[in-house]
Amino acid sequence: GGPGPGPPVAAAPGRAQVFTTVVDTFLEKLAAAGSYQRFANCYRCFYKLQPEMTRSIYDQFISQLQSSIKEEIQEVKDEGNLEVLFNSLDKIVEEAKNREEPAWRPSGIPEEDVRSAMVPYLLKHRSYLRKVLKEKEEENRKVAESVLAGRDRIAELQQLIQARKHAWQ
User: Fold this and answer.
1) pLDDT, tens digit, 9 for 90 and up, residues 78-96
2) Buried b (16+ CB within 10 A) or exposed e, 131-151
3) Of 50, 96, 124, 127, which is most buried, counting CB atoms within 10 Å of its CB?
4) Burial class (CB in 10 A: 0-12, 13-18, 19+), 36
């Protein structure tokens, strides 16, 4: 037989994971750009007197810089609710993959865009209102028949009363 199906293809990482990777890569490149050698060159006099202390200060500086950047980015992610938004965007993109027709896009003419969105809703609502109107008209017709029947009965009873009244006299 031929070769079986290949290994399962891993799903592409979500936008939240890509964002985290980008931030981590940025921090690595930042640390590389701010190398110890450059730091030592900037503080050459101090480096010559205290190389171990210079190294310690550099390590603390880079560590605190990275952690404060991570904290700031985490704050932005939390305030902007980015995790939820990234996941929501991933879901929308995934759902859109199965569509045959293209997604709606604005035409650039606001009146047409509003009309295209509102007309189907308004037609549906008009249909609903017409149905309710027919039901009310039918209800009113039945009530009117009932009223007329009641009036006829009252007229019959009045005639009966008049006939009995005449019979007594």
Assistant:
1) 998 888 999 999 998 888 8
2) eeeeeeeeeeeeeeeeeeeee
3) 50
4) middle
Stretch 10-24: mean pLDDT, rounded?
84
Rounded to an integer, what distance in angstroms lies between the CA atom of residue 114 and that of residue 112? 5
Structure tokens at 156: 């019959």
Which single residue is written with the structure tokens 């932005």?
76
- DSSP states along 78-133: HHTTHHHHHHHHHHHHHHHTT-SSPPP---S-HHHHHHHHHHHHHHHHHHHHHHHH
Name residue, tokens 């209800």. Answer: 139
Q: Could you report the per-residue pLDDT of 98-137, keeping only the tens digit for each?
A: 888 877 788 899 999 899 889 999 999 999 999 999 999 9
* pLDDT computed for residue 94 by the predictor: 86
Task: Give the whole-angstrom CA distance, residue 24 versus residue 73.
Answer: 11
**C-alpha to C-alpha distance for 120 and 126, rounded to whole angstroms:** 10
Given a contact cutoff of 8 angstroms between Cβ atoms, the answer to whether 27 and 63 are in contact is no
Q: What is the DSSP letter of 7?
A: S
Phi, psi of 133 (to 5 degrees): -60, -45
Centroid of chain to Cα 85:
8
Structure tokens given for 143: 């009530």
3 state DSSP class of 23: helix
pTM tops 0.85: no
